[in-house]
Amino acid sequence: MGGVKAVKALKNAYQKYTGVAFFLGFFLVILTYFTFSDQLTIRAPNAVLHSSPSYESQQSSPTEDNKILPKSDERKKEDIPEKKEINVGPTVSDSIPSTTQQEDKKEEEKTEVNDFKQFENMNQALLNKPICDTENPQSDTCDIYGDVRTHGLSLSILLNPQNPIQNRETHEWKVSPYSRRHMKIPPVTIKELKSPQEAPPCTVKSNVPAVVFALGGLTGNYWHDHTDVLIPLFLASRKFNGEVQFLITNMQGWFLGKYHKVLQKLSNHEIIDFDKDQQVRCYPYVHVGIRILKEFSIIPSLSPEGYSMVDFTKFMRSVHGLQRDSPINMRESPGKKPRLMIISRRHPRKIVNLQEIVQLAENIGFEVVIGDPPFNVNVGEFAKEINSVDALMGVHGAGLTNSIYLPTNAVFIQIVPYGNLDHLCRVDFGDPAIDMKLKYLKYDVSVEESTLLEMLGKDHPAVKDPAAIQAKGWDQVAEFYLGKQDVKLDVNRFAPTLVKALERLRE
């Protein structure tokens, strides 16, 4: 009987302690789960990640979305991709962050304040000056300092304040990123945010500035490549000594291929195809748009750094490793002939009697070379040929843009076609040549030297009354005087110009 009671007592005790053990075990499991759950939390794709204080520059690996792909020079309206709106508010997944996410966000905000504070102070010092200048007759530009966030796919640039803006209205601008506002290039939107809570999180963060600009437009013409893009880009970016990133909208693959050495000299960083860029990139300073100060030239007093056209030509020579900075010194080398390059055109405005002019120049005392670059010639190779001569001459046209590679104080002769084109030729090449410190000469083609006389007859308005053609507008001028005209230079009439060129080299 006592044995049966003992068994029952053990059974009851076993059940009692088993229940206690089960409860303790369940409690330990729950405790373990809550201890490690924060470490195992899966973050939302747009969650803000921790940035260490020693961070210098963070770049995501290139994806198909930001690779540089060639496009046609002109984009039809239907070919322009629809711009997606960027979400500037918090997402549902961000509304209840874990403890670790809250700590990471605080740490990142602290880091961003350190990184961008000095630049935002610059904005505050310039509060009386608008971020964007849209009053210039030709070009829009914006200078945005602080915590600046870009999203290429929506063509948006956001200025994130360190503290909510309460005492004034925020502003928004739509500006053309191309240097000529009238060209139909999709605009970029610059927007001041009201508070930091509106800002999308950075996915790529950089401590170098960025320059946003557009290609397309009139590029494809060699003169416009330089006037509309390369010279304005030099003005906007040279001061950074390569520590700047280019965000290019309306990308043209051929342009990057042709001028890659120039772009690499101006920027040490990856070029971003802005239209396809899905990243939210954060910068301390963003410059939007590039400005033409003067056609194919620079006005030093309007350049904040005081750059001149001489600075640009020296820069371009350095891009291609051209060491020759001055032409021949004829007093030190009296027996050596100066070299003259004649730019030969395959299209209208070519010199019909080129060989006669070559013979004339040789008789006067020049060594003559013919410059006949094919359209897709390597820019660097032809630049070396230009830099090797002491004088350059040619009929008005894009080929004379190569004058930027001449040594300083070389002679430059522009042959002005018939048709009252003196003003056009002076603006496009005459004034810029003087700004480059070249010894500029011009030669005005007479009606007898123009092939229009034989082609159209002496009674045609384009022959007898150029002013009437000018009054009809640019299309008529381009058709007759630039599109149909060649020149046959009068050897006796042209000879004094070559003699003057030789004299200028002896100075």
Describe what you observe in this structure.
This protein is of the alpha/beta class and 507 residues long. The protein has 14 helices and 15 strands. The protein has helices spanning 2-36, 99-125, 222-237, 253-258, 260-266, 309-319, 354-364, 379-387, 422-435, 452-456, 461-464, 466-471, 474-482, 491-506; strands at 132-133, 141-151, 156-160, 172-175, 188-192, 204-205, 210-214, 245-249, 272-273, 280-288, 339-343, 367-371, 391-395, 411-416, 439-444. The strands form two sheets. Strands 1, 2, 3, 4, 5, 6, 7, 8, 9 and 10 form a ten-stranded mixed sheet that branches. Strands 12-11-13-14-15 form a five-stranded parallel sheet, sandwiched between helices.
Task: Name its key features.
507 residues, alpha/beta, five-stranded parallel beta sheet, disordered N terminus
Summary, kept brief:
The chain has helices spanning 2-36, 99-125, 222-237, 253-258, 260-266, 309-319, 354-364, 379-387, 422-435, 452-456, 461-464, 466-471, 474-482, 491-506; strands spanning 132-133, 141-151, 156-160, 172-175, 188-192, 204-205, 210-214, 245-249, 272-273, 280-288, 339-343, 367-371, 391-395, 411-416, 439-444.
SSE order and pairing:
Elements: H1 2-36, H2 99-125, E1 132-133, E2 141-151, E3 156-160, E4 172-175, E5 188-192, E6 204-205, E7 210-214, H3 222-237, E8 245-249, H4 253-258, H5 260-266, E9 272-273, E10 280-288, H6 309-319, E11 339-343, H7 354-364, E12 367-371, H8 379-387, E13 391-395, E14 411-416, H9 422-435, E15 439-444, H10 452-456, H11 461-464, H12 466-471, H13 474-482, H14 491-506
Parallel strand pairs: 3-5, 6-10, 7-8, 7-10, 8-9, 11-12, 11-13, 13-14, 14-15
Antiparallel strand pairs: 1-2, 2-3, 2-10, 4-5
